[in-house]
Structure formats: C-alpha cells, structure tokens
C-alpha cells in the first residue's frame, strides 16, 4: 500500500532542495540513509571527521564567547526568526520527518509544530532569564542572582524525534547565550541537514551571528564521544537508550560537566472503575500505537481495574485488529513502520518472552507488503499478562502494550512504580480522591503524571523528563532554561562599614 506516485528518493531530493540543502550534503558519503517506509536507500551523507568535529567544537566555543555579549532579548530575536523560518518550512520538513522516521504525516507536522512552539516560548523567555533579589542579613547590603551563559552545549538526539529534541535544547541554549553542537541519530541525518539549513536562513536574516554558533556533526558514536569528553563542552543533553546514558553519564561526571539525560521510559496508565471509557480508549490508542510505539512517552503498560476490564479490553482488541498500518504518507494510516529490522527483531523477542510468561497476545505480527520486502510494518500488540514479569519491566521500543488487571488502587500504584524507568504516567478516573492520590507524593513516581489524557504528546510549555533510569533531566518549558546557564550569587555592600556574615568579628 505505498502511496508514492513519485519514487521516494526523488521526493526526498525535491524536499531537500526546497528546504535549501545542497546535493553534496547528502550524496557520495558513507552514512547510508534508508527510509523505513520502503527500506530503500535514499541518501549517502558524508560523515564529519574527527578533526572536523574538534574544529567545530573549538569554533562553537569561540562563537559562544561572542554570543554571550549579545543582550538576551536580542538573542531572542534570532530564535523568533528561526520560528518564522520553521513556519515557512513546516509542510516540507514535516513530510521529510515522515519519510526519514516513518511517523504519520500528522505527527511529522506535529513534530515541526513543537519546534515552532518552543521558539515562541524561548523568544519570550529571552526577556525573563533573570534572577532573584534576596534580603541580606547585613545592613546596607543587597544580595542578588545573575544568570550567565555556559558555553558550547552538546546535543545528542534520537531517530524518533529527529528534529524537535534539537529545537528544545537549541532554542533555550541560544537565548541563554550559548552555542549548540548537534549530533543527530545516524538514522536521521537528512532532517538534521534540513534543520541546519533553516537555522542558517534565520541567522542570515538576523545578521552578524558568530560563525559556528550552531554546528551539525554527522556520524556515529565516536562523534558523540568527542562531545562528551571535550573540556570545551560544559553541558551535554542526550536523548536515547538507558544503555547510552550509562555510557555518557559517568564520563561527564568525571569531568564535572553537566548532563541532561532523557533515557528510557516504561510508561503506564491506570484505568479506574469511574474512567470515562470512551475518552480512555482514544487516549490509549494514540499513546500506545501512535508513532508505532516509538516515543519515549509511548504507553507500554495498562493497569485496568477488574470491574472495567471485560468492557475495556475487548474494545481495545477490536481497535488493535483494525487500526490501519501502512505507508505513513497515506491519509488513512495511523501506524507507520518500525525504524528497522533490529527494532522488529527486538519486538518479536519481547513477544516470545511474554508468551513464555503465559501472556495472551493479540496482534504483533509482521505485515508484509510484497513490493517492499525491506520495510518492517507490524500490527500493534496487546499483551494480556497476569503479573509484571521482567519483560514487562523492560522497555521495548515497539508497539507492545502489556495489560494487567488490578483490584486495589494501592496495588496498582505499587505495580506502576515498580519498574526501573520513570518518565510518563496517567490515571483515568472521575474520582477526585484517586486522581489527587496519583499526583501526590505517594502516587506516580514519574516526571510526568497526567489525569484523563494519555502518557505521550506532552506540550512544550512544561518541563519534560523523568526519574530513575530515565535520567533525571528536564528539557523544554517551565524553568528548564536554568540548566543552560550558570547562576552567580552577588552580594553588594553599599555602606561604609564591613560587617561580616554570621556576626563573625575579625578586627585587624
Ligand atoms: C521522545 O519520544 O523522545 O511527549 C519525545 C511527547 C513528545 C515528545 C516525545 N512531545 O510524546
């Protein structure tokens, strides 16, 4: 069911051209790019060499030294322009996200919308990155906080949100007076190249942006390693697997650099006896099957009260059996392909384990389209399982929803929290006691806890991130900007005496 009238490679070339990426940026290199829609090769991007990476880091540091002297509201103007350029590029970039990452068009466009939204947020923020004034214990003294830029910020992003994650980091980092060096996933260099071209257009309109302020490095883990180990990179924001975080975090800690880590999630929803089931079913469908289960916020575990289990689960099974899986460019499709064969194999392995654990599985099989044997489409899997076995506690980046039954909310919360990850969570209830309990200190232990909406699709205005193996970082809205700046506490004496704090006397 491929919709293409034009071969996909030609479409990619046309989109990249419209977005302002020259052919040499994605031809003749050895970073081979495939589209998950057909599995075919669509580009060969040149990799950034180790020496070019070192140069980009040094140049970004230099750019920061200059950029930090530009007033913050003026820096906000660059991000406002970036938002304008993204608005103009929305249809093309959204479609390129769909082709490169495999998410449906509406989600591809939605991802670019997140970029536009964070630009608006950051432009406004550029007039608010100020500190507190605090009372001093000494007469004729004043205490205040000043926020300063940090330096060149490293951003390591994943295939599933190939451009939005950069924008959350870049928009904040740049208004805060930093430079940004980006290493996107090896699977999605084209959307990164397009985003870089869009940024360059905003920079040209702004005029006088220091060279190398926003750098793009294409390559494998060795490029990431250079960012992680460089003394010129004071903060690395990394999105990916918990395994990646385990490799990155200790090395940053060893040199006392900062880390913002967005790692694995194993997000759950609790469906209580009073849940509005019509709304609940829709929320579950989007969170669990949307993006083919390849969001870090995807719903992976469903804890259903025994009184509604037999009403809800058959409805879900029907939807799982009928949801349209196919070419994400087609209007009717809701579930696109998995990113690659490895993702498919990991999904099958998890399902085999669940079956050994006694689960009853609906769906999960590969859907093969004869004309595209290299693509990995699957029917999302609904897995009814009696207890939370090891495989349920493990994040598999695929559309698998484990469904468990509960009797007491207390037990559901305990099961909910007894996984290593802590990103997103939801409760479906019309009972205010249950809702508030879930949001309280003794409820969900996640960085995101929702009521009557799903686990995925967070707005940019809130702080985004999670606890435990999710890594503890917060990106995007609220006061996440503070991580991209250093705080100085200033005490100013405007009197003629020198009283010491804590009443200490030191008379010479
Ligand atoms: C991710 O999957 O890495 O909350 C990010 C959401 C999106 C971001 C997901 N706004 O689902």
Automatic annotation (TrEMBL):
EC no.? 1.2.1.3
One Pfam entry for this protein is Aldedh
Q: Keywords of this protein's UniProt record, alphabetized?
A: NAD, Oxidoreductase
The question of whether NAD is a record keyword is answered with yes
Question: Could you state a single Gene Ontology molecular function term?
Answer: aldehyde dehydrogenase (NAD+) activity
UniProt keyword annotation of Oxidoreductase present = yes
Q: Which InterPro entries match?
A: Ald_DH/histidinol_DH, Ald_DH_C, Ald_DH_CS_GLU, Ald_DH_N, Aldehyde_DH_dom, ALDH7A1-like
| Tree of life domain | Bacteria
Q: Which residues form the Aldehyde dehydrogenase domain?
A: 31-487
Assembly and interaction partners? Homotetramer.
- Name the protein family: Belongs to the aldehyde dehydrogenase family.
Q: Which PANTHER family match?
A: ALPHA-AMINOADIPIC SEMIALDEHYDE DEHYDROGENASE
Q: Specify the protein name.
A: aldehyde dehydrogenase (NAD(+))
Which species expresses this protein natively?
Granulicella mallensis (strain ATCC BAA-1857 / DSM 23137 / MP5ACTX8)
């Amino acid at each position: 069911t491929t919709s293409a009238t034009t071969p996909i490679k030609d479409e990619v070339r046309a989109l990249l051209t419209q977005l302002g990426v020259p052919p040499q940026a994605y031809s003749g290199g050895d970073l081979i790019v495939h589209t998950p829609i057909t599995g075919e090769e669509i580009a060969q991007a040149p990799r950034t060499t180790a020496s070019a990476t070192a140069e980009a880091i040094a140049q970004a540091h230099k750019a920061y030294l200059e950029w930090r002297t530009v007033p913050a509201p003026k820096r906000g103007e660059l991000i406002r322009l970036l938002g304008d350029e993204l608005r103009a590029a929305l249809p093309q970039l959204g479609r390129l996200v769909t082709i490169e990452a495999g998410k449906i068009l509406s989600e591809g466009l939605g991802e670019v919308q997140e970029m536009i939204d964070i630009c608006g947020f950051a432009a406004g923020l550029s007039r608010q990155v100020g500190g507190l004034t605090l009372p001093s214990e000494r007469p004729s003294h004043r205490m205040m906080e000043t926020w300063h830029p940090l330096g060149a910020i490293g951003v390591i992003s994943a295939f599933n949100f190939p451009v939005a994650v950069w924008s959350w980091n870049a928009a904040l980092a740049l208004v805060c007076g930093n430079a940004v060096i980006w290493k996107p996933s090896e699977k999605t260099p084209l959307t990164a190249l397009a985003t870089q071209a869009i940024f360059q257009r905003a920079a040209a309109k702004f005029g006088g942006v220091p060279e190398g302020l926003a750098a793009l490095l294409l390559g494998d883990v060795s490029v990431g390693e250079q960012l992680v180990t460089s003394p010129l990179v004071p903060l690395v924001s990394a999105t990916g697997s918990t395994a990646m975080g385990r490799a990155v975090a200790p090395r940053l800690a060893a040199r006392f650099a900062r880390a913002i880590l967005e790692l694995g999630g194993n997000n759950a929803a609790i469906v209580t006896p009073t849940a509005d089931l019509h709304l609940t079913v829709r929320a579950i469908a989007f969170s669990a099957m949307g993006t083919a289960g390849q969001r870090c916020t995807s719903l992976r575990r469903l804890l259903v009260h025994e009184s509604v289990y037999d009403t809800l689960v058959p409805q879900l099974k029907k939807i799982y059996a009928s949801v349209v899986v196919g070419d994400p460019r087609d209007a009717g499709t809701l579930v696109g392909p998995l990113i690659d064969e490895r993702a498919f194999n990991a999904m099958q392995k998890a399902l085999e384990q669940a079956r050994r654990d006694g689960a009853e599985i609906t769906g999960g099989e590969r859907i093969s389209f004869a004309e595209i044997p290299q693509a990995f489409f699957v029917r999302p899997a609904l897995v009814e399982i009696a207890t939370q076995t090891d495989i349920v506690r493990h994040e598999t980046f695929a559309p698998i929803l484990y469904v468990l039954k509960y009797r007491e909310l207390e037990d559901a919360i305990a099961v909910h929290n007894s996984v290593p990850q802590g990103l997103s969570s939801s409760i479906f209830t019309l009972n205010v006691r249950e809702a508030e309990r879930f949001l309280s200190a003794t409820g969900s232990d996640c960085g995101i806890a929702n009521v009557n909406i799903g686990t995925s699709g967070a707005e940019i205005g809130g702080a985004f991130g999670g606890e435990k193996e999710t890594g503890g970082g917060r990106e995007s809205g609220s006061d996440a900007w503070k991580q991209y700046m250093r705080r100085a506490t200033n005490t100013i004496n405007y009197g003629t005496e020198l009283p010491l704090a804590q009443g200490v006397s030191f008379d010479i």
